[in-house]
Design brief:
- This protein folds into 2 domains: 188 residues, 3-Layer(aba) Sandwich (Rossmann fold); 91 residues, Helicase, Ruva Protein, domain 3, CATH 1.10.8.
- It is built from 11 helices and 9 strands.
- The longest helix is centred in the N-terminal third of the chain and has 19 residues.
- By secondary structure, the chain is α/β, with parallel strands linked by helices.
- The protein is globular, with a radius of gyration of 22 Å.
Length: 316
């Protein structure tokens, strides 16, 4: 494909995403910026970094992949390394402990650079554990390190909290303030898709390519079901929705089908909002993969200052 065809394809992929209207608006602004940058030959203006506030399971990995593909198609940055983007979870480290997370991040950049001199690309950093700790020196040290590496486009993100939670809102604003003081930053608060949008997502990505489609009554039933699923403590966003779609397909294909491939509410008996299926999904416990990570991270014992050699202490 030509460059313009690649750009159009990457752009359309983003515009088809559900529930990320602010992200789509940012991409439209970015497209204008890139056009003007080329028009006026301004090569010394770098892209900003980004702070996302997004629901758990809201599709950060999909978002970053689509964003990275758009930047690559538009040649917005010079990619260099084994991967164009990667995800990194910055675990919280208390002030009295050695900040090994920064060393781990540096080592990851070296690993991602591969045989190249250094890494250039998109880095998605989960900083949720640092909410309420943004005034601590370790966090500021990490952000200062990012500020010095201008060839990285860093997308920080946290999981969205209940908007009525004033403490969570204050912690987010504090984080935004600390980041903005050290970085050029754009903040995006992304809503999770509505139930009707998720039904359309299942219809488009799981049903239509198999030749099936939902009837109006089936859509109404599934809207109620998805609304109920989202209230579950262990709801994992698009992963849960994908599981629901696969379970529905298995259930439908286990029935004697007539010529019509329209799925009706009658065919979805057992997937109602008060069904055993929904109750079981809401009560599920145990580790779940969420946005590229699992809820149960291995416990890492960070060395204290007393554990460090004299040379290591000088780095703290």
């Amino acid at each position: 494909m030509s460059k313009q065809e690649n750009i159009r394809s990457a752009y359309n992929t983003i515009m088809e995403l559900k529930g990320v209207d602010e992200f789509k608006s940012m991409i439209k602004r970015l497209q204008v910026f890139l056009s003007n940058k080329q028009k006026y030959a301004l090569s010394d203006i770098n892209l900003p970094n980004y702070l996302l506030k997004i629901s758990r399971g809201g599709g950060v990995t999909t978002l970053i992949n689509a964003f990275t593909n758009f930047l690559h198609a538009t040649k917005a940055i010079d990619f260099c390394g084994l991967e164009r983007s990667f995800e990194f979870k910055l675990s919280y480290t208390s002030p009295e402990l050695y900040f090994s997370e920064l060393t781990r991040f540096e080592n990851t950049l070296v690993e991602m650079a591969g045989y190249k001199h250094h890494y250039k690309g998109v880095v998605c950093v989960n900083i949720h554990e640092w909410l309420g700790h943004t005034s601590e020196p370790h966090f500021k040290r990490f952000i200062d390190y990012i500020a010095r590496n201008k060839e990285l486009v860093v997308v920080f993100y946290i999981h969205a909290s209940n908007k009525s939670n004033k403490i969570a809102q204050a912690n987010f604003k504090a984080m935004e303030s600390v980041l903005s003081l050290r970085l050029r930053l754009e903040t995006l608060e992304l809503r999770f898709p509505r139930a009707d949008e998720l039904v359309d997502h299942v219809n488009e990505h799981f049903m239509q390519d198999k030749g099936f489609t939902f009837g109006a009554d089936a859509k109404a039933l599934l809207c109620e079901t998805i609304d109920e699923l989202t209230t579950g403590k262990h709801f994992s966003g698009f992963k849960t929705i994908a599981q629901l779609a696969n379970d529905i397909l298995y259930h439908v294909l286990s029935q004697v089908l007539v010529n019509s491939k329209e799925i009706t509410a009658k065919m979805l008996k057992g997937f109602e909002k008060d069904s055993i299926y929904v109750k079981r999904q809401k009560s599920q416990t145990g580790p779940k993969k969420v946005i590229g990570f699992t809820d149960t991270q291995p416990v890492v014992k960070h060395p204290t200052r007393e554990d460090l050699s004299a040379n290591e202490r000088s780095r703290v």
